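Notes from hallway chat w/ T.B., transcribed later so I don't forget. T.B. wanted the structure written out for a chain they're using in a teaching module, and asked if we could keep both sequence and structure tokens in one place. Agreed to drop them here.
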Amino acid sequence: MGCLTVIIFILNIGFSIYVDAMCFVFTQAMGMNTGLGTVIAIVGMIIDNIAFILGYSLSAKIAFAPRDFWRLSSYGVLMKKIACGWAAKALPWALWFFPGLAL
């Protein structure tokens, strides 16, 4: 199961980068990012991918009860950790599109 969890984690990282790249390409094609906007978009892509990795790694300390490790299968634990990673990745996007949430 250890090899499978590593493969699923790497596929999620790859999909995360792919989603960011497609959003960046779309905004470039629409002419929305020019000059400083391009730099801000690239920094945003880096920040939300770091947020994904941090959310994934900290989820074992934050989101799990001790009984989850013996009640859930190892696949269930992995999916819960990945869900926490995607939630952390969505936070910078939410703050970008809805800045009132930061208040």
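Follow-up for T.B.: Residues 2-102 form one domain. Might be a good example for the class.
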